[in-house]
């Protein structure tokens, strides 16, 4: 009936108004309290997994803000790496996080070219998506996923942590919502991301 419909409409309208006001208030508080940006002069950032996606975009964004960016790419001669190499402030380095030799070489490249800069942050972004039922996957496929997603994060963090301690910098670990729950077909990926989240939590406490 009409009164019931009016009551529902008023409830919906009130909810939308409250949501809109809350959204605007949140933006205002964020800009007022956290809107300042840290100075980028003299700071370098290492990002893994910059061939495509988030790592590639983050490298461009930070370089545009004045940071010197070391963009770790699995394929340093690939299309994504070549595009990044044309960006001012971006230095592409070969970096397969599943390879001890690559991570060591990347460390040497960074330390040799830092100059007056400090390594202010390392972003552990490299990862691989493993999809499929566990029963159907080979152990080699599962081992490879862990080598990149979990041990890759461990390799890079252990190698570069001394530089971060010197600069009092930060280690940024990219995980996933699937670290908190598991969907069929994404079991291995969730296992990896849960382990990576545990790594981040453990390093924070250590």
Automatic annotation (TrEMBL):
<dbReference type="InterPro" id="IPR020904">
    <property type="entry name" value="Sc_DH/Rdtase_CS"/>
</dbReference>
<dbReference type="GO" id="GO:0016491">
    <property type="term" value="F:oxidoreductase activity"/>
</dbReference>
<keyword id="KW-0560">Oxidoreductase</keyword>
<dbReference type="GO" id="GO:0008202">
    <property type="term" value="P:steroid metabolic process"/>
</dbReference>
<dbReference type="Pfam" id="PF00106">
    <property type="entry name" value="adh_short"/>
</dbReference>
<dbReference type="InterPro" id="IPR002347">
    <property type="entry name" value="SDR_fam"/>
</dbReference>
<dbReference type="InterPro" id="IPR036291">
    <property type="entry name" value="NAD(P)-bd_dom_sf"/>
</dbReference>
<protein>
    <submittedName>
        <fullName>Putative corticosteroid 11-beta-dehydrogenase</fullName>
    </submittedName>
</protein>
């Amino acid at each position: 009936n009409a009164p019931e419909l009016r009551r529902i409409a008023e409830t919906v309208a009130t909810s939308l108004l409250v949501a809109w006001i809350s959204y605007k208030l949140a933006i205002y508080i964020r800009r007022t309290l956290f809107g300042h940006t840290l100075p980028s002069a003299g700071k370098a950032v290492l990002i893994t997994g910059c061939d495509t996606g988030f790592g590639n975009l983050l490298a461009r964004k930070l370089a545009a803000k004045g940071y010197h960016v070391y963009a770790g790419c699995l394929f340093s001669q690939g299309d994504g790496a070549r595009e990044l190499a044309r960006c001012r402030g971006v230095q592409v380095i070969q970096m397969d996080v599943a390879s001890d030799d690559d991570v060591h070489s990347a460390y040497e490249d960074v330390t040799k070219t830092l100059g007056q800069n400090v390594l202010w942050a390392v972003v552990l972004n490299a990862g691989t998506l493993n999809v499929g039922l566990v029963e159907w996957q080979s152990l080699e496929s599962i081992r490879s996923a862990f080598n990149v997603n979990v041990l890759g994060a461990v390799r890079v963090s252990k190698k570069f942590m001394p530089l971060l301690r010197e600069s009092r910098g930060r280690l940024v670990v990219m995980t996933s919502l699937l670290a908190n729950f598991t969907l069929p077909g994404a079991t291995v990926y969730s296992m990896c991301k849960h382990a990576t989240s545990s790594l981040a939590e453990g390093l924070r406490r250590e």
